Amino acid sequence: MNQNTRVRSGLVAAIAAVIVAGGSLAAAPALAATTCATAWSAGTVYNGGATVSENGTNYTANWWTQGDDPATHSGATGSGQPWTSAGACTGSGGGTTPPGGGTTTPGTGGSGGTAKGLVFSPYKDITVNLDWNTNVMNTAVTGTRIPVVGSSNSLVSTREPGLKAITLAFATGTCGSENWGGVAADAFANANIPKLDAAGVDYIVSTGGAAGSFKCSGAALQSFIARYATPHMIGVDFDIESGQSATDVQNLVSAAALAQAKYPGMRFSFTLATLAASDGSYGGLNSTGDATVKAIKASTLTNYTINLMTMDFGRATAANCVLSGSTCQMGKSAIQAVTNLQHTYGIASSKIEVTPMIGVNDTTDEVFTLADVDTLSAYAKANGLAGIHSWSLDRDTPCASTTASPTCSSVPSAPALAWTDRFLADLR
Asked: 104 or 218: whose pLDDT is higher?
């Protein structure tokens, strides 16, 4: 999260299936759809001749295969691909599985939920204190490692019952074959999504991040969402920091615009690095952020928010932040970043979110304090911002470190969950 370091149609499938050597077309089979076979699963071994379905298309295995997504690993017989399309299908032969395996609805299923009002959802770096045996999210923020949700001693049930939303970070790679810190998508989803849903905790699925990137295009994003969708999934977050080209960003925007028709309550947030110039220049987004906002404004996407990473402003100058003596005043700088975004791009407050880094930032003289929580929360409520998040839940515990840490705030005087508690109290 460190901003400095940090489908194919049945007709096309039918034509592809009958391409023969020399590039000519054999007589095309009838396009009448048949019943869909059992949905493909990444964990299942298939022998030659096995038939599966995915997203309204049947596929036949050409040989032994496991983990090869037929939507991206199919071709005509002799093409070298493990799957060959058998044409369009309808009905249910076991359901539709999103690319990469897993079930389309690991919890109760559904079309996803809808964010209500200003959302506060700390980011949860799922790799911090993850139970690598069960793939269940844990945290040691209270001093003892416990599950975030899903048990009687979980964080939400014992310490933070008021925490009603969380942002899961990060899914990386290509949608359909994404992973979570090396954990396969279906394994992570099946271990955590039903627990969040059962606990009544809203969640946002965040992708990309400082250490990775996320790529997705076309209708594949809808299948990606389906893997995690329950009535408590309220958003998808694209954290765009590294590894994504202008084309990749455009593909994400276009895919989100396409997905909003199927998921009308889903909110698509674009998390971008920013400065908070207070010198009258209204400086903020870098070239990647600028291109992202312009792509969004030129698209048909309406269910979007711009989530500003109001952290790590660098040198304490008026070109970078709001000054307090010789340091950046972090709460007021977050507000200035919002002002600059509105001035430059005309983005409404209701489509803007902010994510400060609690405690000591990567620039060590920048500290987002509990008083900054009060400043930012009051502004967000008064001006109707869409949300406040924080980086990160696992950092909300004291330590004596003088530099930024992924597992503590580097503020020894602040008790565990001080920032989370303060945000919850201020935003009530």
From this structure: 218
